[in-house]
Amino acid sequence: MRQALWLLQLGTPSLPTPSSVSKYLKEFLMDPRVIDIPWIARWLLVHGIIANARSGKSAKAYQKIWLPKGSPLRVYSEKFRDELQSILSSQEIKVFLGMRYGSPSMRESLDQIRSDGFDRILVVPMFPQYASSSWGSAMERVYKLLAREINAPSLRVIPAFFDQPEFINAWANRIRAAEYQNYDLVLFSYHGLPERHMKRCADSCLQSNGCCDKLNIDNQFCYRAQCFETTRRIQQILHLDDSKLATSFQSRLGRTPWIKPYTDELVLTLLNQGKKRILVCSSSFVVDCLETLEEVEIRLRENFITAGGEKLEMVKSLNADLDWVEGFSKIVERHKFLK
């Protein structure tokens, strides 16, 4: 049975230039699931302030990490698609890649899926943990695009895979390879979100200090709780003592409260506690991108060393490494259409 596997990624500017970055930021930040304020206020904020203020600075950041073939996120995502295709070809599955923002767009990739004659589509947002602003936004776009189809295809969706053994083992393998025993602490740094996004997921979110300590039916859609669950599962595989790890959140934007603790502040607190050698694992990403390569590997490291730290290293993401590609193919196998 022929079926399409539709991989959905966040997206990236096409070039590391202020104009390209500005175009990307406008598309990204005008998404009401990303900045959840009334349209006119969002338009004025994004077009009048953020895009103009950040495009130049962000373009310089992209220039530091840009690869000969383009943006790391796109290069690694395309390589992952191609490597996965080589494994899944025997199962009559063709793999497609679409970007929520930027190119290749989800519209373009869906058009290719349909022109190739597929009427069964297996969709997977490539965000390990569920967040309305990433996973939810991608799926909302899927449903809107398919709603325009006269002959709507059959659809199956692979859920967030933050707790799947293939994902957990892939990260554990990388942390082992980085020789985590030689560090004072392993820091699991996840992408941050505004606190108000968490509170909209469940009434219990952020109502107590320990509300994310255990994943349960009340917080099952809480991004922060899923991040802590990912940390716990990797910890179990590596037999890491609680004193040898921490979890934090990066990439905050604006003045509104974001989920805590903040990565940039926590590393300095840890340094004051004598943690001079830190290994950082950004396990809310499956490919290296601006947030890992520039924010963590360059900027966070520089700030830590400047403050007196001895060493801060980042574990490279899963990218298109063979063990992750093979592991992900097993996730696909569990969710694909059956004959």
- Arithmetic mean pLDDT: 95
Tell me roughly what share of residues is in helical segments. 40-55%
Q: How many independent structural domains? A: 2
What value does the Rg take, in angstroms?
20 Å
What's the β-strand tally?
8
Low-pLDDT segments, ≥5 res:
none
Return the CATH class of the largest domain.
Alpha Beta
- Please give the largest β-sheet: 4 strands, parallel
What characteristic shape results from the CA principal axes? globular
CATH architecture of the largest domain: 3-Layer(aba) Sandwich
Structure classification: alpha/beta
CATH topology description of the largest domain: Rossmann fold
Give the helices and strands as they follow along the chain. Answer: EHHHEHEHEHEHHEHEHHEH
Oligomer: single chain
The termini sit apart by 6 Å
Strand order of the largest sheet: 2-1-3-4
